[in-house]
Amino acid sequence: MPPPDPTKPAKSLQRSPDLDALIQAFNGFIYICSQDYRIQYMNDKLRERTGYDATGEYCYKILHGCDAICPWCNNDRLFRELKTIRWQVKSPKDERWYDIINTPIHNGDGTISKQSLIMDITENYLAKEELSLLQTLINQSNDAIFVIDADTSAFLFVNNKACSSLGYSAAELLALRVVDISKLAVDMPSWHKQVANLRKQSQLFEAEQIRKDGSLIPVEVNASFVPRNAKNFVVSIVRDISERKAQARALLAEKNKLESLLATLQDGITVQDTDFRILYQNKAHIDRQGVHTGEYCYRAYQQRETICDGCLLARSFADGEVHRRETTAPGNNGVIHLEVTSSPMKDADGNIIGGIESVRDITVQKKLEEQLRQTQKMEAMGTLAGGIAHDFNNILAPILGYSELALTRISPNDPLAADLQQVNKAAGRAKDLVRQILAFSRLAPQEIKPFQPQLVVQEALKLLRASLPATIEIREEIPSDCGAILADPTQIHQIVMNLCTNAYHAMRKTGGVLGVRLEKTTIADNRQGPSAELAPGNYVVIEVSDTGCGMDQKIIPHIFEPYFSTKAEGEGTGLGLSVVHGIVKSYQGHITVYSELGQGTRFSVYLPRIGEEAPSLTEAASSETIPTGTERVLVVDDEEMISKMLQLILESLGYQATCSCNSLEALALIEQDPKAFDLLITDMTMPNLTGFDLAQKALAIQADLPIILCTGFSELLNKEQAQAMGIRAYLMKPVSVQELGQTVRKVLDAKK
C-alpha cells in the first residue's frame, strides 16, 4: 500500500443515530480510518483518551505515537483479503496491551475503510502472565493452592493438587467459585465477610471442602488477601487434614506412641486444658522443669495465683490461633533464651478443648547472632586501627630517621649517643607496634624470619613489669641457648603478652607468682608428646604459669573458642586465647593447658626449632654496613618533614637527592628531563597523584626508571602487586637508614 498523502483531506464518515449510540455503548475504543491511515470516525471513549477529536489525523500518530506507519500494521492484508483480523499488541505510546479487531467496511461511495475495535487488556494480560509463572513454580506443591478473585470468589488459578484433591479437571474447577465447594463460605455474603477479615490479617483456619462426588474433605486453610495492579485476590494454601483428624479421633489409642515420639524432641512440650492445668509433659520438659502434671502452669512455673500477663496459651484459647514469642529465663550457666509457641487443641466438632505449648532453647542461635555482631564490630575496629596506623607512621618516620641520622653525625663515645640509641630503640618498638596494629586490621603481611625467641620474651616482660602491681612477682627462667625459630617476632610478642595478661587477671585480687620459662625439647614419637597432632622433631617451649584461681575442668575445652571468656562483661573481647591458638597453629606448633581450681594455670606453647642458630635482631642489624652511592635520586612525599629527612639521609650516603612535596611537580621534573634521575622514591598516599599513579606516568615517560614505593598503609596495593606493575621495591614506613640504604643500592645495582 502506498504511503499516506498528507496533502489529501480525509473524508469524515457520518453514522446513523442508532448506530452511533450502539458504538458509544461499547466499553472500549472504536475508530474508522481510510486506506491512507486518516481517522474518519472515533467514539467518545477514544476522544477522552486522546483529549480531542482527532478526525482527519493519522491513526499511527494518535494511537501509538509513531512518526510513520506502525511496524506491525496489517492494513495491507486487511484491504487485500477483506477479512476481519484479530490480534494483540503492546502500544509503545503508553506501554499497555490491547486486543484489536480490525474489520473492512464498505462505504456508500464505493470506498473501503477499516473499523477497529480496541479493548485495553493490560490487567488481564499481566495477570495471566504472572499466573502462568506461578503455575509453573507451584504446580508440584503437595498442598492445594488457589488464586481467587476477591470480588466474585471465582477461581483464577488452581494447581494440580487442588484438582486431584477435589476430583475435578482444571477446566472444571476454574469454572467454579469458592461458594460452590466450601462449607464455610456457602454464599456471597459469607464470602465477602471472610474477605473483609482477610483484609485485616492473614488467617489460618480449618474448614471442609466438597469434592466432585459430593463427599467432604477436612482441610486446613492458610489464606491471605493480596491486592495487585488495582485488582484484589485471595491466595489460599489448603492442606488435606483427613489423616490428622483420624489421628485426633484415635488420640487415646495412640497415646503411648505419641509419648515415644515427643520424648525424642529437644523442645519442651506440655499439653494443658482450658483451665491451664498441665495434662502432659514430654521428657525434655520434665528434665528441665521437673514433674508438674496435674498442677496449674502459672503456679508450677511462676508461683502465681492467676494466669501470667500476656500468656500465649490464653491468646490461643481466645482466638483459636497459633502464637509465638521469645523470652529469657535463668539457667545453670546464666540466662537462656527461649522461643515459646502455643497452639489450640480442638475436638472433632472444632471446639477448643486444650492447648499445646512448646519451649525451644535458642540460646546457641542468639550467641551466634551476638558473635556476628561482635565480628562486625571487630572489623570496624580493624578499619579504624589501619587509619590510625597510617597517621602514626607519618609521625614516627621522622623520629626514627632523624635519630639514626643524628647517630651518624656524632662520636659513639658522645654522651648523647646513648640517649639517641634509646630514642631509636623506642622508635623501633613503636614501629613494631604499628605493625601489630596493621596486622590486627589485616593490612600488613607477616614478617617471617629466623630469630632467638628469648629476646622477644625478655622484651615483653620488661613492658609487663611496669604495668603489674607489686603483689604479683615475675619469675623468669630464660636461658640464652634456647635455639632459634622461624616466625614473626611481633606475633610471638603477642603470644607472650596475651598469656601473661590472662595470668595477671587470674591473680589481680590475691596476688601471686607469674612464671615464664623457655626450654628446648625434642619429641621423638608423637604418641609420647603433648599431642598426637605434633610431629616428631625439635621444639622451643614457652611456658607461662600463674598461682591464681585456676579453672574448672568443664571450662578448659572451651577456652580457645572465639569470644569465650570467664571475665566480667566489658573486661575483654574473648579473643585473646583464640588469637594465640591461631598463631601457634599457623606455625605447625601446639599449645597445652593444665589447670586446677585454686591451684593456678600453666600454658605450654610448642614452636618448631630450626637447625641453625639465628643472630639477635640488633646484632644482625648492626653487623651490616650501609652501602653508599653517587646516583641522582628524586624523593616525593607530601609530608615535607619526611621528604626532607629522606633527602638528608640519601645525601649523607653520597647520593644526589632532590625532594618534592607535590606529585604533579615531581612528574613535571621527569617530563622536563627523563634522564635527570637514576631512581624515583615515592610515597603511596598523596593528593593529586597517588604514588602508584605517579609511578605509572613516570614509567610511561622513562620505561627503565627504577622506582621504590613507600607506604605506611594501603588497601589498594601490596608488595606483590607493586612489583608486578614494574615497581622495583616496596618499603613499609617508617624506613630505617640501613633499610633505605640497602634497598636503594640493591635497586640501582639491579638496573646495571
Explain what you see.
The chain has 752 residues and is an alpha+beta fold. Helix content is 39%, strand content 26%. The strands form 5 sheets. Strands 16, 17, 18, 19, 20, 21 and 22 form a 7-stranded mixed sheet that branches. Strands 2-1-5-4-3 form a 5-stranded antiparallel sheet, sandwiched between helices. A hairpin with a 6-residue loop joins strand 3 (85-90) and strand 4 (97-106). Helix 15 (363-409) packs antiparallel against helix 16, helix 17 (453-467) packs parallel to helix 18 (489-507) and helix 18 (489-507) runs antiparallel to helix 19. The protein is flat. The chain starts with 16 loop residues before the first helix and ends with a helix. Mean pLDDT is 83; it is low at 617-623.
Global mean pLDDT? 83
Percentage of β-strand residues: 25-35%
Low-confidence stretches: 617-623
| C-alpha end-to-end distance | 82 Å
Question: Which class of secondary structure composition applies to the elements?
Answer: alpha+beta
Biggest β-sheet, characterized?
7 strands, mixed
Number of strands: 27
Number of helices: 25
Q: How helix-rich are the residues, as a percent range? A: 25-40%
Radius of gyration: 43 Å
Shape: flat
Key attributes of the depicted protein:
25 helices; 26% strand; alpha+beta; 752 residues; 39% helix
Describe the structure concisely for a colleague:
By secondary structure, this protein is of the alpha+beta class. It contains 25 helices and 27 strands.
